[in-house]
Amino acid sequence: MEAPKKLFIKTYGCQMNVYDSERMAEAMGAEGYVQTETVEEADMVLLNTCHIREKASEKLYSDLGRLRNLKAAKPEMKVGVAGCVAQAEGAEILRRMPLVDLVVGPQSYHRLPAMVKAEGRQVDTEFPTEDKFDHLPQRKGYRGPTAFLTVQEGCDKFCAFCVVPYTRGAEVSRPASRLLKEARDLVARGVREITLLGQNVNAYHGEDRTLAGLIREMAQIEGLDRLRYTTSHPNDMGDDLIAAHAEVPQLMPYLHLPVQSGSDRILKAMNRKHTAAHYLDLIGKIRQARPDVLLTSDFIVGFPGETDQDFQETMRLVRAVGYGAAYCFKYSARPGTPAAEKTPVPSDVADARLQELQGLILAQQQAAQQAMVGQVVEVLYEKPGRLPGQMVGKSQHLMAVHVQDATGKTGDLVRARVTSAVTNSLSAVLL
Ligand code: SAH
Ligand code: SF4
Ligand code: F3S
């Protein structure tokens, strides 16, 4: 028998890309490829890219540069570029990088196996009318207690800074019946926690269900202990979804709700279509429904036109909310977006604001971690820890927890009391 071919995948960007990489690996698995962690032994290298900020996008070219020698030594090795840079730059990647054999956008990767077999260099960045998920193999190989499930893709919001509406296309929801089936299949393979994914996941509307409706139905699946969803937009945070946080025990008390800025002037320039007061009002309602909810967010500093006063309004909003964590980004002008036409804030000013905001967020994160000491948490074990007899998993609040548990196994859901906390993890004793 022929030895199986080896596929090396590197994934950048958001969880949606992580999910896509899994699905591409499965599609190639049906063609006899097995995954490898060692790029040198690969018959095919696939880079699943992100276009969101300039730095993320440039990583593709530095990685391709590093692959050049390997490809020279092994000309039969295929090199593929997938994801959002593939979508944004398409054939330009083939022109700039002779070692690349194929470029495939996020909506056409079900065609990957055919592209790999075809003669010559290939590009496919269409938004095909058929649903790629219909053309992908069943998720047979999945292992592990947690899984991502893409329920919605694309975005119609057109925030002035963002490339996602261009790279992922218009908002599309997958049919609820198929998502329920995929969830049942995952649970049958041992998955106990599912994170529903979408660029605008709470805008989900498939087969007459809202996201809240889908969550309520998924919560009926026997053996599915935990549900999460990400990423949400404040304007789609409906009352029914807030109510689900109060009423569905499987829905974890954790919400990533990006606000980007605390200044109404900047929110308007960003085309976010809500004010800081509207956001704070929402946070109030969510906390009323689920008092122990842990909130996280994304922020952009140095958006064109941001003054010191605007930035101080962001700091004020952060103090008012009190986050468990947040991603803070320095604004990056992206080709083709409206904000890229505007005069940028000086780089050193943006850097200083980034530091100030990150300092505040770090202090809030440490306080949230510290507040867990003495509390009982539920931990879903994801893997053995570094110390003998130790297991690592996530709490309801998505905090990493180390538990001393010599008989614990991956996939166990246990109760433990937190004994100490550092910035990124908790230690707990089994109850
Ligand atoms: N759909 C999600 C997030 C998509 S991108 C949402 O609407 O919130 C993830 C984060 O990247 C964004 O929340 C934003 O904070 C950041 N981001 C997007 N474009 C950016 C840019 N041009 N410069 C800096 N950060 C950016
Ligand atoms: Fe980008 Fe805004 Fe859409 Fe989020 S809502 S993906 S930030 S355009
Ligand atoms: Fe990046 Fe595309 Fe996700 S641009 S953040 S990989 S949707």
Automatic annotation (TrEMBL):
Binds 2 [4Fe-4S] clusters. One cluster is coordinated with 3 cysteines and an exchangeable S-adenosyl-L-methionine. Coiled coil: none annotated. It is an enzyme of class 2 (transferase). Its cofactor is [4Fe-4S] cluster. [4Fe-4S] cluster 1 binds at C14, C50, C84. [4Fe-4S] cluster 2 binds at C155, C159, C162. Monomer. This is tRNA-2-methylthio-N(6)-dimethylallyladenosine synthase. It comes from Pseudogemmobacter lacusdianii.
